[in-house]
Amino acid sequence: MNKILLLVVSAVALAGCSKPKELSPQEAWHNFCSVIPGAAVNIMTDRQQGVKEADALEHAKKIPDQHAQVYLQSLIKEAYKVPIYENSNQRQKALDDFSKGRDQECLKQAAQNK
Length: 114
Fold this sequence. Notes:
This protein is mainly alpha-helical. It has one domain. Helices cover 74% and strands 0% of the residues. It is built from seven helices and no strands.
């Protein structure tokens, strides 16, 4: 769960660290969305390892950007609709399926929030 927070905070921090050029909202979202597939894997890994949904949602509240926080919370809620699998092949399939295309989905969401 800390991996999710680290990925997102890193993306947000990297977007804010380089002061020479102020990022547009679109560029900031693009940076955020580029880490979402990895965050999705971490969210589903937490789900499959039995981390409680409330704990995952609590970690998402630490994200400073409100839109990013809401997006991650929706991702967490979606992940927790998937059952916990005992079989490692099923777990891996759940991870793969959950992370596939997430960056593009995130960018579509960003376009709707303009």
